[in-house]
Amino acid sequence: MSEAHQSHDMHGGRHNRAGHRDDRTAGETDLRAQDRHGGHGAHGGNHGDHVALFRRLFWINLALAVPAVLLSGMFADLLGYSLPDVPGLAWVAPVLGTAIYLWGGRPFLTGAVAELRGRKPGMMVLVGMAITVAFIASWAATLGVLSHELEFWWELALLVVIMLLGHWLEMRSLAQTSSALDSLAALLPDEAEKVDGDSVVAVPPSSLVLGDVVVVRPGARVPADGQVVDGAADVDESMITGESRPVRRTVGDQVVAGTVSTDSALRVRVDAVGDSTVLAGIQRLVAQAQSSTTRAQLLADRAAGWLFWFALVAAIITVAIWSAVGTPDFAIIRAITVLVIACPHALGLAIPLVVSISTERAARGGVLIKDRAALERMRVVDTVLFDKTGTLTKGEPALHDIATTGIGDEELLALAAAAEADSEHPLARAITAAAHHRGLSVPRAEDFRASTAVGVSATVEGRRVAVGGPNLLTEHGLAPLPATQPWSDRGQIVLHVVVDGQVAGALGLADEVRQESREAVDALHALGIRVVMITGDAEPVARAVGAELGIDQVFAGVRPEDKSSKVASLQGAGQTVAMVGDGVNDAPALAQADVGVAIGAGTDVAIASAGVILASDDPRSVLSVIQLSREGYRKMTQNLWWAAGYNIAAVPLAAGVLAPIGFVLPMEIGAILMSLSTVVVAANAQLLRRLDLSPEASTAAAHRAPRVGPPSRTAVPTA
After folding, report:
1. pTM higher than 0.70 for the full model?
2. What's the per-residue H, E or C state across 109-138?
3. Is 387 a catalytic residue?
4. What confidence tens digit (pLDDT) does each residue in 61-78 have?
């Protein structure tokens, strides 16, 4: 605790603001980072290219499909209107249909080839088979080789356009917004100040070598891992360790690239550069976890695979049976009808429509979906692993306890707030905020002074008031108040208030737990979901927060390289884990988890490593994700049954299974059923718009929902 006590100094706030300026300029390093991690950057770009591709293909082919459908002879017969007697009009549908097949259908044809090569027929094979059979049969019917019943130009055009719409929606839902590895690289400063003899020169961090000495000024980021050789400063390591307060680093201590010196200048001898730095190690962990994450095979693809074999077998049986009874021409017509009628109009929209509406509803509820597969997995999560700092807590100190030696609590707090009024240190802001919250009248202070690692002092109404940590007491030859020992045991920061050379009291400050965190934990327990907390903070701090919230299990003092392994250990025990975090130190764990959920107020790298992003810092939004996942999955399965049900019923009828009793499904009726199936799927997906995903509504819904299983409550164990 002594290092934490020593971190009280007036300069922290000003230098932190300088650090924010460094964050903004450091973004320029993304361009250099793309050279190192082009694969990930390209990955994000490919999603954007696919969105633009399918959007362009959809609108162009829709424009071609309208005249192709309206000028199709079969479609005109279906709706009962006559085509005008214009020379060459009969060739409009074939010409436009050919363009739609070759241009709009190309993504599905190439996808079908890839699926066949991989011996995993799915949606692409089913679509490719349907449009190819329709294309060949339609040309044969147009040229008089086959019956006019097999002219499917309008069916071909509609299938391609609807499938392009579905894939446009799908690609848009999968579009990536940022790269985790580029965001990690952006933590490094643009320049390093290298000591060269008696002068200091600015050089790129990449040019540093082992043994170089660099100057890290207040508010600047450390350019490389190394050892402090001169100076002492409070270093903000929260982006690496998750520790909620700066840590005192002095001569002989190690510092890590990307961390910030908040109050004083340091000289650091470089002992690790490039791939050997801690930051590079985190980058590797993120890359490994991302590349090893398996995407669940989409339900629509599985259904399409089943329907492909179903339609193919049905067509073969149709040809065999109708040829055996002596009507080969009728057998060909029935078999082609079977293959075309199996086209998945509704199936192609069943999942993308639900995903599109789900993501739109989620955004309105403050939940941004980056990874559809992650959203689907959220419904089976049985363990939610929260980072502590900035997630369950506010990530900033707040006044918790006051002890006095003869004056009132309010008077002590007013004196302390007066002395701290000119300081911008986070602890000073916490004290002044507490005084303001209690409506205290804070007197004016004069002769303000600040001393690094000691505290602040000022003259308040004729009395000399000093506020600081243990070094302040040592300087005055005073002893800490006995009442503060339990505060230290709970991990609080203890500041003593000295008035005219005597201890007047003490203030206990700690990272404040969010009220929303209590509600979120209770609601997750109501759903039968275990709640685990992980933090880089010391065990007393972690245990205190865990006990206050009723956390089932606590991992304390965990370094970044161990966070992902903690997630893996939970997964190894058979648990499906959702990780919720907001810092760089959480990035590997977010990528390793079955579902990574990033607090949107956190760092870019945490957001990039996650599949789900909470736009607010309200931990109850995790319940919104669970509710959305379960409701969305229910709509997906309903739509798949509606869509596949049409094919399952229509294919045997198109094959002529009821021909012995005089009924054969006409193509026109099949088209009506197909359109009806598409309408039902679209209407069912729209019902998701009624879902209220606000944190309050989702929390209330969790308490009303049936419990999946009892949470494994423990007495806050650590690991």
Report:
1. no
2. HHHHHHHHHCCCCCHHHHHHHHHHHHHHHH
3. yes
4. 899 988 888 887 777 777
